[in-house]
Design brief:
Helix content is about 60%, strand content about 0%. With about 210 residues, it is an all-alpha fold. The chain folds into two domains: about 70 residues, no CATH class; about 110 residues, no CATH class. Helix 1 runs antiparallel to helix 3 and helix 5 runs antiparallel to helix 7.
């Protein structure tokens, strides 16, 4: 059976710590086989050595490392690390380029703050939510006005030399956004009509009863 790599890592740390203690004059380095014996005993939950029963003896760094590893192994067996928040989910922001202002952007997104922070960040958040905001508008003229206003503020932020991160939010094509708004609106209408047609036989049956 293949040895648990975590146990191997604990043994390696114990050997290195024992060697460092011996080199620093704290005493002779602990033999490797003794360190392995203690790690095995610690991983099984048993005493690392009979010498550990001596209350006057100060534990070595190797023994402290073995104790920590034992606590971790026991927690794994109990399932303390199971079902942690975010388990099985991709790490947020993984694959993005380095953003020195990531914490500001994440705060704005999580708290849904508006009008706060540098224009480069607020416009980026608004750009991500623009389609949903346009879908709430009643007509094409309203969509054109909203996109024109968004583009105007992006251009203004690009011209301002007030410091802060550069504005990389792209401009939106007005007519393309109107077409996308109309297509999404038609798709929602078809979906609502299909749902109504599916429920119509049920309503007729209920009225007959």
């Amino acid at each position: 059976m293949t040895e648990d790599p975590r146990l191997s890592a604990a043994r390696y740390r114990m050997e290195r710590l024992a060697e460092e203690e011996g080199a620093a004059g704290e005493g002779p380095a602990e033999p490797a086989e003794t360190a392995e014996t203690r790690a095995d005993a610690a991983s099984r939950g048993g005493p690392a050595s009979d010498a550990s029963d001596d209350p006057a003896r100060r534990p070595t760094s190797a023994e402290r490392a073995a104790y920590v590893e034992t606590v971790i192994q026991q927690a794994i067996r109990r399932g303390d690390f199971d079902d942690l928040p975010g388990a099985g989910k991709p790490i947020p922001g993984l694959g993005r380029g380095h953003d020195p202002d990531w914490w500001i952007r994440r705060k704005i997104e999580s708290e849904k703050l508006t009008g706060l922070g540098p224009p480069a960040l607020t416009l980026r958040v608004e750009d991500a939510e623009l389609d949903a905001r346009l879908d709430e508008l009643p007509g094409e003229d309203d969509v054109r006005e909203a996109v024109d206003d968004f583009n105007r503020r992006v251009k203004l932020a690009r011209m301002q030399l007030l410091g802060g991160p550069p504005v990389v939010t792209p401009l939106r094509d007005v007519e393309a956004e109107v077409q996308g708004w109309a297509e999404r609106r038609a798709a929602r209408a078809r979906s609502a009509a299909s749902a109504a047609a599916h429920d119509e036989p049920r309503r007729r049956w209920w009225r007959r009863r």
